[in-house]
Amino acid sequence: MTVLKTSMRNFFAHKGRMALSAVAVLLSVAFVCGTLVFTDTMNTTFDKLFAATSSDVTVSDKDASDSGETTSGNGKPPVIPASVLDEVRRAEGVKSAEGTVFSTSVTVVDADKDSLSPTSGGPTIVGSWNSNDARTMEITSGAAPEGGDQIMVDGDTADKHGLKLGDEIGVISAVGTHTAKISGIADFTVTNPGAAIFYMDTATAQRTLVGESNVFTNVNVTAAPGVSHDQLKKNVVAELGAGYKVLTAEETAEANQESLGDFMGVMKYAMLGFAGIAFLVGIFLIINTFSMLVAQRTREIGLMRAIGSSRKQVNRSVLVEALLLGVLGSVLGVGAGVGLAVGLMELMGQMGMELSTDDLTVAWTTPVVGLVLGVVVTVLAAYLPARRAGKISPMAALRDAGTPADAKAGWIRAVAGLVLTGAGGFALYLAGTADKAADGSLWLGLGVVLSLIGFVVVGPVLAGGMVRVLGAILLRAFGPVGRMAERNALRNPRRTGATGAALMIGLALVACLSVVGSSMVASATEELDKAVGTDFIVQSDRGELITPQAVEAVKAAPGIDRVTEYKWTEADFTTPDGRTAKDTAITAADPTYATDLRVETVSGNLADAYKPGSMSVHEDFAKDHDVRIGSKIEVAFTDGTTGSLTVRAITSSEGVIDAGAMYTSIDTLARYVPADKMPLDQLLFASAQDGQKDTAYKALKDALGEFPQYEVRDQTDYKEALKDQIGQLLNMIYGLLALAIIVAILGVVNTLALSVVERTREIGLMRAIGLSRRQLRRMIRMESVVIALFGALLGLGLGIGWGATAQQLLALEGLKVLDIPWPTITGVFIGSAFVGLFAALVPAFRAGRMNVLNAIATD
Q: What residue spans carry the region label Disordered (predicted)?
């Protein structure tokens, strides 16, 4: 009980100093709990949607995906004969059955030819209005579509684009473009996470999406009373045989959730990873806080030991303070995490993904995880200072002698840090010299971990030299005030090292990712300059296939000399060694593609691969399967027949563009794949007539004005788009890393604040002999800047090393250019100085307000 009382008294006596540490715990726990609540809420939203929209049993083509995805290589959804509907209706236990047609391989435009597809990446679904949809949609305006000139739209899409009854919209599919006027607007009775949905009558949907009547994509079956879904499925399969895919509502919902699960898992664990980084940074803040509090209570601890307190009791007292801090920060963090999840939902809503707070899901495990994680991390971080406090002898504490083992511990720390850093550097060297990226990545991960720990451990040793260098460059110009700031930073190298290490972690990751991102852009740009021999590239940023109508529009554009089509499909390759490579990608293109993309050939002539009955393979495949020029490969095309193709070229497996691709001609593909199964183009390459590049560029954009889903880019545009894509990804990562940097800033603030309290008497004496408030504040600001720049130098140097090593691994995949973004690195370094200035504002202000006489009288 005495220990608890002492801990409580000390905790509340230093509540202001504990606040920043509590904020660090709060932020880290909030990020973890917010991530869990946000992802659980998304899962709940989609679970409700999938459960509400799934019929009791669904019958579809055997090649249709379980999750209902309708994109096929030919741009049309897989279909089943309309006669299946009558067969299903004859099955025992069927109350009703209805044939439907829908597709996600479509683009919908308004009267101005602007796309109505969601900007959030959600699907655009066009289908036939049916009774199953009527369960989840309520017509709030107008009426359901009747006839080919009518279409109905969901309310969310209508609101976003200002659509109203009577407006004309167009549906672009592989079949062609169909225009209709809005006859009705329907709202979801459950949350729509962000899909744009349009409804036609069944006959119009068949003509528009498939190009033929008497077919359906699905047959929705409703069970008679008392018949379970599983039993209904058995009855339907018994009636139809094994030629169709038959799923219950539960199986359909599960398949949909699995298709979403990969994305959700990546997002969830990525965000938790950044929360873990924030926790790691917070550990340094907590260690520093308790180390300084213990140091400031040295004499108090000596008195406690002198009157009978044992080491364990002193140790326990400090740990109880940490426990109180962890519980308080974690409880507040759990509440803040729920608020953060709501904020993320609002942010996603602005981006086009609607999530309702009605579906807000706080599982019982979420607060438990937050509390356990926050408390455990806080107590572990406080263990070393607590152990150090317990080791102080009563007489040494009463003399303020500090810990006798400090010098010995310093040597042990220095040696351990150098060993770990050396081991990390050696692992990074092995990663950079690896022959295979997979092997090198393991060494890279080990090197990152060891070098990071090594720098953390050896930080106090480095602090002395680096702070002196920074002081000579930056502080000497400020005269005595600058020299005092330098000495203050050097007074406790362990404290300076730990404070700088907190900032080092976040900045090391920023520098590493900047180097990797910049190198990827530079490598891709160099590869484009070397390999691409065409003027324009036409493709969809959403991954949509290029419709035949768009291809014809591109070919008809004035000023175009040639257009190269580029298709992609899968096939089973049976090689001369008797082995079969299942579901292997093969690219079919026009012969001009050999000119449009200058692929490095290690054997044979790539142009010959586009001759009838010919193909190319890449070097690694050739080695693995003993394939040579002239070898015959049996190729069983998906949706087609099997042909024997002759290998005419072996290409390099390296490179950025089309790395590892295997080529044949479109004419060869057409021999084995029926016309109605031929895949649509993934992209197009277009070259302008001599001297007509500017004219052709404008003509292409005009020609594709009817097709807003496609982008026309010349090489400059393509490079900028690539740079923007990588830049957006890095900005998102930097935003997540900002949490760790904020916690590191709190650490600098806390260190300075506690340092000011520790030096109260000293500050009073300096003021008494003539140091002005302005000089005092400047001294504290300069000290903060030096600590921040020390951490920045460590972090940026470490991050550049990591990034350069990672680029060596990427070079094995064709990204051979190392590009260090010095403007970004310099900007981060300068920004660190401003971080130091900002962190010192409050401590410097409080120091300047001290009463001189009271400060001198402080014991």
A: 59-81
